[in-house]
Please model this.
Amino acid sequence: MKTGQTLRSRDPAVEARQRWPKAIVGYAVDYAAGHSTGRHAHDRAQLVHGEKGVMTVRTDDGAWVVPPGYAVWVPAGVVHEVRAAGAVAMRTLYLRADSGVPVGPRCRVVRVPALVRELIARVVRLPEDYPEPGPESRVVAVLADELADLPAAPLDLPLPRDRRAAAVAEALIGAPSDNRDLEAWGRSVGASDRTLARLFRNETGLTFGRWRQRRRLLAALERLAAGEPVTAVALDLGYDSPSAFIAMFRRTLGAPPTRYLRYGGERA
Model:
């Protein structure tokens, strides 16, 4: 949903940056665990990125988890909320349409390589009206080139639109460990298992099984970032054993949970 003219950020510094004269501006802010920005929208596109901690971005169309080493593109005007799973150091960018960076029409998660992280850390410290030409503008130009080609990451959770499938999705967002199969879900929402399977596949691009697995992965990232032990998270989310959970985590994100969070998502 796009209503950027009516829902504004509660942070005056964020609103001020929408009016800064440069096409790409940065903002650094730290959030305590559990902090929520509330639902809001910006006139500029935003790259939601954190130096540390895990955030979740939620819109009417889905949810996107942002662990270290990743970021979420939020197009201009899209109403969204950012929640901090643990303590978060957010280092974000706001981009005007004339920035030259192709943000795209939908939210999406991307990998943030080390070079881009360092460039973002530099840009968020720039003053409102740094000189052009100059070293500052050259740093921003390099960053813009790098932002145009960030690799996608499987950390989004698209939501179905049909009310029956949406009811199942919302229930699993609230209770990701629920192991009911599609037949049982169908009885609770008034649809056949085949109908629900088709709706999830057509409206989210994922099978129901893959969608539930993705939901559990995102829930795990939030809880691990808050300091919960791997064993407790794995069993609470419905996995048969911690090893089964670790195998799924490694298969999806390229590293086991403790190493993944310790090194900010870097696989090397």
